[in-house]
Amino acid sequence: MPTYTPPTTPATRCDDAAMRDTLSRFCTGVAVITASQPDGRPAGMAVQSFSSVSLDPPLVCFCPAGTSTTWPKINAVGRFAVNVLAADQQELCRQFAVTGGDKFTGVDWRSGINGAPLLTAALATIECEVADVLPGGDHLIVLGRVTALTPPERLRETDPLLYFRRTYGRLGPSSPGAASASAASAATISSKSASIASARSRSEA
Q1: Over the stretch 116-175, which tens digit does the pLDDT of each residue have?
Q2: Based on the number of CB atoms within 10 Å of its own CB, is 115 exposed (0-12), middle (13-18) or buried (19 or more)?
Q3: d(CA 28, CA 119)
Q4: CA dist 114 to 37, 80, 127, 146, Å?
Q5: For the chain, how are helix, strand and coil distributed in percent, rounded to 5?
Q6: What is the pTM of this model?
Q7: How many Å apart are CA 109 and CA 82, to the nearest integer?
Q8: d(CA 169, CA 167)
Q9: Largest Cα–Cα distance in the chain?
Q10: How far apart are alpha carbons 17 and 5 in whole angstroms?
Q11: Is residue 194 exposed (0-12), middle (13-18) or buried (19+ Cβ within 10 Å)?
């Protein structure tokens, strides 16, 4: 059986710009992480770095920047909600991607079972408890244990909000329920652009 031999030369550090440009080719969805602070004020931030991890136990993860000012507020509570954004929530995404200010101004939401804000028009919501927080370079890797999901009757049947090469987009053709395998294979990206700084802020706000 072949065995792994570790490299004998030091690892070469990747160029930051090349790293961003290469990884921007990986298309992602966008989510807003929310929590209710002890004083009742809502907290939230937009992220691209969200993923399912395990079914048994049910785990998800996201990766806030180490410099995030919102993550400490969420971590202090120990529970949060993931709000998966729809294609018609691009402006809402920008609202939660900024640092500071009242991100919930004009936003329609209700409290979830764990108290975290659930955005009314989200595609789906996932309520979690913080299971673990691991170091991940200049980011943190937050594992969340799923405690509640959107009831099937409340799931929205519409396109997700996508982010690809610093550009917002949606599945094509644009029609309700286009998130099928056939539509996904024909995915197209809109021409609305965002800056690199805006892209980074989605995991840092």
Answers
A1: 999 999 999 999 999 999 999 999 999 999 999 999 988 999 999 998 777 777 887 644
A2: middle
A3: 20
A4: 12, 8, 7, 11
A5: 20, 35, 45
A6: 0.77
A7: 13
A8: 6
A9: 61
A10: 30
A11: middle
Preceding omega of 42 cis (within 30 degrees of 0):
no
Cis previous bond, 160, omega within 30: no
- Amino acid letter, residue 99: T
3-state secondary structure of 93: helix
In angstroms, the CA 101 to CA 41 distance is 12
CB 145 within 8 A of CB 129: yes
The tokens of 180 are what? 């099928």
CA distance 127 to 114: 7
